[in-house]
């Protein structure tokens, strides 16, 4: 699937700063708000980490923006493979970033319990939704403009989730009895987002 | 040229998917706000700017994207060859925000008109508070256009929106600790008190200064944008004037905010002028704040249902039902409250807000229990208040009286009991109130007994209650004795 020879040229063609600024802003926010002398409770911490992951997803949506797409469209490397190469470049950095977030929370608030696995699922879902939105938007307009739609779309979707009624709520508090059921729904959304991303990344030649 | 461009930009902005989604979300939030309680218009108006926030966020992002369109399409070099300057294009983007703000005005007007059509609506909305929402939409859109010119990258819009929300959260988290007027430097200044105030005057909010502050902020951003694209002298001049107005209005609003000396003086004067109007129906006196008299039938309906089912002597005892704003304390902006005492001789207190829809059943249940509690001379605390598990005898019957003729209250009773069962021994009692009022608090023992009584024919239970009224109202009676008298299993607690 991946062609190692493509990694370096792809890395050079990515405009990194829109990708990096939002997650770094999230880390800065974390450092500003976390205070060992006045620790957040579990609910407050989960809320803060959700904001941080949404920021990261906004940045990740810009990863798929490819100004060279009209030029490279005829080459025999499929669209999915080109996008997978971009994601492969970002995956280690995103994983490291998330590990850094987890470590800094553990360091600053060692006594506050919080559900790492569940929030990792939420973070992954929001990130994939951002990528899927960028991929879908790329189909409608010129490919390089996907993030222009996707970044605000992530915010709009998160805004929608804040008003979801209880039976389908996603932003559940950790002490809420619906926490486990809520994360089954998160997993479902993740699966739908992955399918949407793959479907939107089919090479135009095969459509 | 500007007018023609503005028409095109307006049409594009109004059809933008984000604006449409924001509009739908704002409609939903406004609908939720209006239908939560029987409308108190001088309190509902404070919630409209928050309800319009999705539309404001959408206007920010969509206006930002529209301003960046030429840059995205690499048309700026082409535009640079034309004789026209970029100022008319920026002016068109700014002018396109006015129709979006007008949509917000129409939404607010429709929402308030709908709320006012409720037969139990009270109060008069403040036009200054209602105008704040559309002006926030205008301000957000102007910020989007300004960012498009000052920081011309697509990620700036979404980041600015997240930043705005975060700054608002931080201002609300730490603002009150810094000073009472700090909150007013945020664009949105919602009111989080749990109950509506009895009148808009006692809020003493500096709404006029805040509106001037918001308008000057929008004007300042617009002037800065115009200065950035070429009209340097007039743009910077406008920015300087707007900045002066922002500072003056900001200081004025902070000085007049509740919590400051001047604000508290206004609140105290307004509170001192508050009087209740009382009216007697049979042996019950109902006292309501001016304008709230239309809600007396809502309370009378509950009182009558309970007193129709108690013996004549208890039903004709004098009773006062008094409206009182809950957790209303001007000096600390609602941090503490004047909770009523709730002994058998004290008046029954009803809150200023009266819920609508499903939650109304909880409030009717609470009021019904309070009335039954007076009739049965029950102590304020049920299960939790008696040592050694000896709840007062009339507890279960008080709940039954409140719920038997009111399906909404019965559903609320069953929901509260389900919460008690689900919570196990951790939750000892509830007080059936969604309005912070504390009345008779009851536990599982009373709740289970009331539900068993509700499942039996009403006429049969009424007969039993009438026969054993003396026991039920006796201060020394216990729930176990009441269970024996009413042919119910012994309570477990």
The mean pLDDT of chain B is 86
Total strands of chain A:
0
Major sheet: arrangement of strands of chain B: 1-2-3-4
Cα separation of the termini of chain A: 20 Å
Overall structural class of chain B, as computed from helix and strand content, comes to: mainly alpha
Uncertain ranges of chain B = 328-341, 383-388
Q: What is the share of helical residues of chain B? A: 55-70%
Number of domains of chain B: 2
The SSE order of chain A reads HHHHHHHH
The low-confidence runs of chain A, each spanning 5 or more residues with pLDDT under 50, are none
How would you describe this structure to a colleague?
The complex is a heterodimer of chains A (207) and B (493). Chain A is an all-alpha fold. Chain A is 71% helix and 0% strand. Chain A contains 8 helices and no strands. Chain A has helices at 4-13, 16-33, 42-61, 69-72, 79-108, 116-140, 146-162, 179-200. The two termini of chain A are 20 Å apart. With 493 residues, chain B is mainly α. Chain B folds into 2 domains: 2-177, no CATH class; 277-485, Neutral Protease, domain 2. Helix content of chain B is 59%, strand content 4%. Chain B is built from 22 helices and 4 strands. Chain B has a 4-stranded mixed sheet with strand order 1-2-3-4, covered by helices on one side. In chain B, helix 4 (53-67) runs parallel beside helix 9, helix 8 packs antiparallel against helix 9 and helix 16 crosses helix 18 (407-423). Chain B is elongated. Mean pLDDT of chain B is 86; it is low at 328-341 and 383-388.
Outline:
The complex is a heterodimer of chains A (207) and B (493). With 207 residues, chain A is mainly alpha-helical.
Key terms:
heterodimer, A: 207 residues, mainly alpha, 71% helix, 0% strand, globular, B: 493 residues, Neutral Protease, domain 2, 2 domains, 4-stranded mixed beta sheet, 22 helices
């Amino acid at each position: 699937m991946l062609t190692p020879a493509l990694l370096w040229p792809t890395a050079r063609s990515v405009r990194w700063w829109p990708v990096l600024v939002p997650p770094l802003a999230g880390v800065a926010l974390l450092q500003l708000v976390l205070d060992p002398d006045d620790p957040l409770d579990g609910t407050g911490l989960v809320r803060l980490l959700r904001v941080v992951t949404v920021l990261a997803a906004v940045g990740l949506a810009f990863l798929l923006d490819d100004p060279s797409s009209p030029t490279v469209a005829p080459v025999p490397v499929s669209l999915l493979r080109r996008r997978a190469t971009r994601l492969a470049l970002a995956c280690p950095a995103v994983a490291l970033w998330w590990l850094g977030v987890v470590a800094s929370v553990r360091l600053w608030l060692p006594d506050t319990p919080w559900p790492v696995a569940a929030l990792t699922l939420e973070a992954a879902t929001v990130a994939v939704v951002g990528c899927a939105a960028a991929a879908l938007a790329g189909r409608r307009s010129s490919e390089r403009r996907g993030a222009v739609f996707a970044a605000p779309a992530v915010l709009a979707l998160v805004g929608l989730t804040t008003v979801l009624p209880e039976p389908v709520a996603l932003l559940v508090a950790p002490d809420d009895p619906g926490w486990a059921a809520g994360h089954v729904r998160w997993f479902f959304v993740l699966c739908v987002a992955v399918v949407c991303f793959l479907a939107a990344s089919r090479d135009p030649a095969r459509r | 040229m500007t007018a023609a461009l503005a028409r095109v930009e307006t049409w594009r902005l109004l059809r933008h998917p984000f604006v449409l989604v924001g509009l739908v979300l704002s409609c939903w939030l406004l609908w939720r706000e209006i239908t939560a309680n029987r409308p108190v218009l001088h309190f509902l108006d404070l919630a409209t700017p928050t309800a319009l926030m999705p539309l404001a966020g959408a206007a920010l992002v969509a206006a930002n994207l529209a301003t960046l369109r030429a840059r995205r399409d690499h048309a700026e070099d082409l535009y640079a060859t034309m004789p026209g300057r970029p100022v008319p294009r920026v002016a068109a983007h700014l002018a396109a925000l006015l129709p979006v703000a007008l949509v917000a005005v129409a939404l607010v007007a429709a929402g308030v008109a709908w709320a006012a059509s409720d037969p139990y609506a009270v109060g008069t909305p403040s036009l200054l508070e209602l105008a704040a929402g559309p002006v926030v939409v205008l301000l957000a859109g102007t910020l989007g256009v300004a960012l498009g010119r000052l920081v011309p990258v697509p990620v700036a819009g979404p980041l600015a929106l997240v930043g705005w929300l975060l700054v608002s959260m931080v201002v609300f988290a730490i603002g009150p600790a810094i000073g009472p007027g700090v909150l007013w430097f945020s664009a949105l200044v919602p009111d989080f008190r749990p109950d509506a105030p009895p009148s808009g005057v006692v809020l003493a909010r500096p709404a006029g200064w805040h509106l001037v502050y918001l308008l000057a902020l929008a004007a300042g951003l617009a002037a800065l944008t115009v200065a950035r694209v070429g009209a340097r002298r007039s743009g910077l001049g406008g920015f300087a004037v707007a900045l002066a107005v922002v500072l003056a209005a900001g200081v004025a609003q902070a000085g007049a905010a509740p919590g400051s000396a001047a604000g508290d003086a206004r609140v105290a004067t307004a509170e001192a002028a508050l009087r209740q109007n009382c009216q007697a129906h049979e042996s019950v006196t109902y006292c309501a704040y001016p304008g709230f008299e239309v809600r007396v039938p809502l309370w009378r309906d509950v009182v009558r249902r309970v007193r129709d089912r108690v013996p004549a002597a208890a039903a004709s005892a004098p009773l006062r039902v008094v409206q009182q704003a809950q957790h209303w304390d001007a000096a600390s902006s609602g941090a503490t409250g004047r909770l009523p005492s709730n002994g058998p001789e004290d008046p029954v207190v009803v809150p200023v807000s009266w819920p609508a829809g499903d939650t109304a059943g909880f409030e009717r249940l609470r009021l019904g229990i309070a009335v039954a509690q007076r009739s049965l001379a029950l102590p304020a605390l049920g299960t939790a208040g008696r040592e050694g598990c000896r709840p007062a005898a009339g507890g279960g019957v008080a709940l039954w009286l409140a719920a038997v003729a009111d399906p909404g209250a019965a559903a609320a009773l069953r929901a509260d009991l389900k919460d008690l069962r689900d919570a196990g021994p951790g939750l000892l009692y509830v007080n059936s109130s969604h309005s912070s009022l504390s009345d008779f608090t009851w536990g599982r023992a009373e709740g289970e007994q009331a539900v068993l009584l509700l499942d039996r024919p009403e006429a049969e239970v009424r007969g039993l209650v009438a026969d054993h009224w003396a026991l039920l109202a006796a201060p020394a009676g216990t729930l176990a004795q009441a269970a024996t008298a009413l042919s119910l299993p012994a309570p477990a607690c």
